[in-house]
Amino acid sequence: MEAKWESERVRELTPSATIDLGDRIKRLHASGRDVLNLISGAPEFDTPPEIKREAHAALEEDHRYMTYSLSSGLWDLRRAVADKLRGENGIAAHPDQIIVTVGVKEGIALATQACLDPGDEVLLLTPGWVTYDALVRLAGAEPVSVPLRKGSGRMLTDADLAARITPRTRAILLNTPHNPTGRVFGPAEVELIAETARRHDLLVLADETLEYLVYTNALHRSIAALPAMAERTLTFNGFSKAFSMAGWRVGYVHGTPPLVANMLKVHQHLVTCANVVAQKAAAAALGGPEGGRAGIRSGLADRRNLVARALDSIPGVRCPVPEAGLFCFPDIAGTGMDDREFADFCLEEARVAVLPGSAFGAGGEDHVRIAFGRRSTDALAAGIERIREALSRRERAAAGDGLRAAP
Ligand SMILES: Cc1ncc(COP(=O)(O)O)c(C=O)c1O
After folding, report:
1. What topology does CATH give the domain 14-43+292-405?
2. Which residue from 81, 105, 185 has its CB within 8 A of the most atoms of ligand 1, so it is best to mutate?
């Protein structure tokens, strides 16, 4: 049913591909069909016990954690974040330059609302996380796709970047490690973006959510640490993935004092502050032992190997092992289906839900995104096996049709 009261901004917004597919899965479940959900970007692991203990302790404590915190967030958490950014990322951070947000998603929304005007253009490397495009549009600005080409190993090139710069270009978004391809951007690419930003006076939105989920010896680089970049970079990170705290909804953004002051105005009016008990637990996550997070990472690394190898052994599917993140992004062109047909086929014939790559923008075609963060390795292995069997039934049926058609 059409809404009577509907803004133009929202009318033009497309629903999240993940949520749309989630609704289809629910309908299939309701009709009694069991579907393996491989679309979710949240690892299905427990939050490490020392972090949970901190939340319990906060609940047992006094009123302090039952009321609003400072809008920018608990001092202890902002100090822990500043220490982390200085020590691990080489960013000269101070707690006053940090806002604790309701997940990284809110942080990026604050940035797009506080820094962009209608008509501004924002360069998005695609395929890329679906929310960037939506948040840029909600701010009235225009996303401009810079394709990461599959022929070049998804490397960003100077020519691709330069060709999209116009007098209206205002910002560029760098997501490394990268969702959905699982790449960690190399030093030359990060420097290329930095150099472009300096030359054209652009703001850089650096989403580093997947930083702690690198499985190779590839080095994660924070662009804000490069010369003259801290003054034009907003760095976003959070707790959803590496600490398996997606439902706790805590993230943060770091930037210069004037940018942070503007974002804080939006944050105050939107949410007041992030959940305070969850903030207390997040401070313990950063300050505490690395054991819990190392366990989550190594569990995910095992699942990455299992899923990527199994997918790559299916005829018509090519799946490089991702360096980082939570997803495999196989090329399925060899099956003769496009990515939407393939995703539909997996759902209908193999009862496995995956996302079509074109949902992630230009360059995602012929690929699907398959999340490997499920707790049960048996379920993951069985799901990929169901895809293999369904494809092989399809092959046999096609061959059978061919035989019948023969004179
Ligand atoms: C690259 C990237 N950034 C941000 C997010 C959102 O994270 P949060 O739960 O902190 O809002 C996700 C979640 O899938 C993501 O993949």
Report:
1. Aspartate Aminotransferase, domain 1 (3.90.1150)
2. 105
Q: Which residue's alpha carbon is at the smallest distance from atom 2 of ligand 1? A: 209
Question: In the chain, which segments carry CATH 3.90.1150.10?
Answer: 14-43+292-405
Sequence-separated (6 or more) residues with CB below 8 Å from residue 87: none
C-alpha of residue 105 to centroid of ligand 1, in Å = 6
Of ligand 1's listed atoms, the one at least distance from the Cα of 106 is: 11
Please name which of 356, 297, 349, 351 lies closest in space to residue 325, comparing C-alpha atoms: 297
Q: How close is the Cα of 335 to the center of ligand 1, in Å?
A: 30
Q: How far apart are CA 215 and CA 325, in angstroms?
A: 8
pLDDT tens sequence across 40-83: 889 999 999 999 999 999 999 878 899 999 999 999 999 999 99
Specify the fold of 49-287: Aspartate Aminotransferase; domain 2 (3.40.640)
Chain-wide mean pLDDT for the chain?
A: 94
Ligand 1 centroid from CA 104, angstroms:
6
Peptide bond into 322 cis (omega under 30): no
Q: Please determine, for residue 401, whether its predicted confidence score (pLDDT) is greater than 90.
A: no
